[in-house]
């Protein structure tokens, strides 16, 4: 299993951060355009445990891949978890944690993932996946700082 952890701080309230990041409708705004991220299902206004979200992404060579995630856990204004049900990973478990801090909010993302194909997946992970995930989270960091300011 591989893990990516990222901590971000923004100069906004916990409530504002929660409202933005817990809305799947905002995912496209903080995903690089080249990923071709498109939600393919209707979305309710508020996220809830058991909610299924389907979308397509184009992570490699512009080839579209279907992805389905389930929101498995939510504790209002504290954390939520999305887990892949269908998609490119054998396991994708993404925790989103939020905490009010002096002058803003701290957000911690923890992504645990496993690639398919056993030893082949393990061999290509540092070459094709790890750097791409870091790049996506770097983009998100830059984008949310554009939207909300730097801490």
Number of strands: 7
Which shape, going by the Cα principal axes? globular
Pick out the low-confidence regions: none
Structural class call reads: alpha+beta
The proportion of strand residues reads 35-45%
Major sheet characteristics: 7 strands, antiparallel
Question: Mean pLDDT score, rounded?
Answer: 94
Topology (SSEs and partners):
Layout: E1 2-10, H1 14-21, E2 38-39, E3 52-57, E4 65-75, E5 79-86, E6 91-101, E7 104-114, H2 119-148
Antiparallel strand pairs: 1-7, 2-3, 3-4, 4-5, 5-6, 6-7
Structure, described:
The protein is an alpha+beta fold. It has two helices and seven strands, in the order E-H-E-E-E-E-E-E-H. It has a seven-stranded antiparallel β-sheet, with helices on one face. Strand 5 (79-86) and strand 6 form a beta hairpin. The longest helix is centred in the C-terminal third of the chain and has 30 residues, at 119-148. The chain is globular, with a radius of gyration of 15 Å.
Task: Describe the structure in brief.
The chain has 151 residues and is of the alpha+beta class.
Core attributes:
single chain, 151 residues, alpha+beta, 7-stranded antiparallel beta sheet, 2 helices, 7 strands, globular
């Amino acid at each position: 299993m591989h893990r990516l952890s990222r901590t971000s701080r923004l100069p906004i309230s916990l409530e504002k951060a929660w409202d933005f990041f817990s809305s799947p409708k905002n995912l496209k705004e903080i995903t690089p355009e080249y990923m071709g991220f498109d939600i393919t299902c209707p979305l309710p206004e508020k996220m809830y445990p058991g909610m299924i979200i389907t979308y397509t992404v184009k992570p490699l060579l512009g080839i579209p891949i279907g992805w389905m995630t389930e929101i498995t856990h939510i504790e209002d204004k504290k954390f939520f978890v999305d887990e892949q049900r269908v998609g490119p990973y054998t396991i994708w478990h993404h925790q989103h944690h939020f905490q009010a801090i002096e002058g803003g909010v701290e957000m911690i993302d923890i992504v645990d993932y496993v690639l398919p194909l056993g030893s082949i997946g393990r061999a290509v992970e540092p070459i094709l996946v790890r750097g791409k995930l870091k790049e996506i989270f770097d983009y998100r960091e830059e984008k949310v700082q554009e939207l909300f300011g730097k801490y």
